[in-house]
Amino acid sequence: MPQQLKLEPYAVHTTFQFAGSDGKRHRLREAMLFYDQPAYYDTPGGFLSFKPGIPKSLLLDGPHTLQSHFSLVNYQLRQIRTALAVACLLNRTLVMPPLWCRFERMWFGHPGILEGTLTKQPFVCPMDHLFEIHTMLHGLSEEEFGPQIHFREYSFLQNPSVPKHVKESLLNVQLCDAHSKGCNISDGTTSRGFIQFPRNSTEQMYMQVFSQYKDIKVLHFSSMANAFQGFNDEAREVKFRNRMKRYVGMWCCVENRDPGHIYYDIYWDEKPEWKPEPPRTSQDDHPPWD
Which stretches does DSSP call E strand in the chain? Predict the structure, then answer.
């Protein structure tokens, strides 16, 4: 509401959301209203961010429907999945992008937004609308799911609490097609604060190139579309995939359906028949990984 009315609130109370105390803290961090210790803003290993580049058609074309909401969210999930893999590989903390939604999330059936509110669609939705924040922070053993992947809120790099030396230690990574003219890495581009880096690069290529930039605080990628081929080690890839499957939550709820919720699936693109539909029976009512 403050953004809609272009007003600055003088008091804030965290009400209902979908991730307990962790979710409340994260919402306050997104609004740059939570006090963290200095180490939160300058973590070892540095940060990784990227430009999501969402097509306007996914945001604005056609009516706001269940299908258009999931098309928009799924487009973002695929990029975030890749970004989490690259962050894991490079041992960096991922700065989440703003997450855009067409539909609200509630605990009951509704037509897309809470009736009587000033919600304008589409809107930047809180991370707990899509992701299981508690699971991302605490819930998964490294032995079974691989290393924990740390993350920060989308507003992190705009926060005045981030030290100047972190914000200014920036390398822009421009993805390019490997066989296109000029798609090469050279010291000349690095001196100007950016490098070109081929799409669909291998794990070895990432390690070879970015091991040179361990002292850079922020790597900012121009995109995450087709940015990474995947982990070489099959066991590591399996653990990463199992971790990703548990990172996403559900949307709720379709009106006049029981159950009416729909599980997000971060690997939706590997299932040609996938559709945003509630479970048909109680036996079908489980996350995609269960």
Answer: 47-50, 93-95, 100-101, 123-124, 151-152, 170-176, 194-198, 218-221, 250-251, 262-263
